[in-house]
Write a structure and sequence with these properties.
It is a single chain. This protein has one domain. The protein has 2 helices and 6 strands; from the N terminus they run ββββααββ. The longest helix is centred in the middle third of the chain and has 4 residues. The chain starts with a strand and ends in a 5-residue tail after the last strand.
Length: 88
């Protein structure tokens, strides 16, 4: 996924797991701005999530938003999980 912040709002480019087409999806709100195609990206301990300099916090299940987006080409459903930035 590629993250963008533009005049059109915050969005990411999602790659369809079925046909590999890229398409844009927007974050569900102003808080959850980091996207991943697996929930584990926000739950698994890693150097990135353990670092005090990390922008991504470890989040509990109720803080992770799951959304589903239909590929415009093949109509396959693609899940995206959204997490929030760390607030000092």
């Amino acid at each position: 996924m590629v993250d963008f912040d533009s005049s059109r709002g915050r969005f990411v480019l999602l790659f369809c797991k079925n046909c590999k087409m890229r398409f844009e999806v927007s974050s569900p709100d102003d808080k959850h701005i980091f996207a991943a195609q697996t929930k584990a990206a926000f739950e698994v301990s890693s150097p990135m999530s353990d670092s005090s300099n990390s922008d991504i916090q470890k989040t509990s299940d109720d803080e992770i938003i799951e959304s589903e987006h239909e590929c415009p080409k093949c109509k396959d459903k693609n899940k995206v999980f959204w997490g929030a930035p760390k607030i000092p």
